[in-house]
């Protein structure tokens, strides 16, 4: 089943391996046009320009110095000022004493006591190389989802590239799902806030790079028995994909101020396994690879794209792939808009919240069974 909605919207880490990757990166940068396939882009831009746009630079050990300081905020576990109450409560939970892995858990300020809430596992954006679950823009995004849906939200802190290239982020997302399963089973106890969650209504949600992570994690999760939790759907907001052959939207918006093509090329060089190009399945999901045979088993999928996002044709390609495999897709295509619009425009953000809420609350057990999903 394929539902398409068109909306009018017109606002405008091993260190040794990392050091080796840095050496390779610098050697190849001397012939950068061979890496950036479009010669017009190669003639106008360098990887140094891309690093400046991203606010990153190399450390001597091959790790990145991240210089753009979007504020990070602490979790808000209680209401301390009734006159200035948060829209949701949040708390950080360490997943393992052996690592820095954690999730930030959200619930509404006044969660219902007579019904269970859907559980949303969220993966933030940031090009795979930037930001955190505690970055303020993603923290507020999760606050609003928890309060407006309402829902219990588990926001995943995942490892960043190039210190930890893909599939490290996929592994972290899958481990977060396993943690939710253990919480449902009460293994090692259960956080009291998760008593509000309906473990039979779990959804995976991601924006941009986070949507890429969600897509691949959903496919990988099909290999595991996750009972008693049930993943009923996945939500992909402006998924970040790429490929060697340029799409019309990439060329039409080649100098896009938010995701210019030459910056995307540099990002994929930092993110993908060192042996891979942009047609690797982690970047280009329609190119083949080990996951395609699992696609028909996916549950319902919500996909949102914007006309003036250079990645919009990649989004449409993915939708066509899913539909071709018989997956039920709800495709929200916005006229106008741009990549990350919901982080800057309140009207666009509210429209996205409403569409995602409708998807989550309209997904029934029957829908899930019809999709042949096997979680």
TrEMBL record:
Pfam families: Abhydrolase_3. It comes from the Eukaryota. Residues 120-341 form the Alpha/beta hydrolase fold-3 domain. PANTHER family: ARYLACETAMIDE DEACETYLASE (PTHR23024), CARBOXYLESTERASE 8-RELATED (PTHR23024:SF113). Residues 1-37 form the signal peptide. Belongs to the 'GDXG' lipolytic enzyme family. The keyword Signal applies. This is Carboxylesterase 8. Keywords: Signal. The lineage of its organism: Eukaryota, Viridiplantae, Streptophyta, Embryophyta, Tracheophyta.
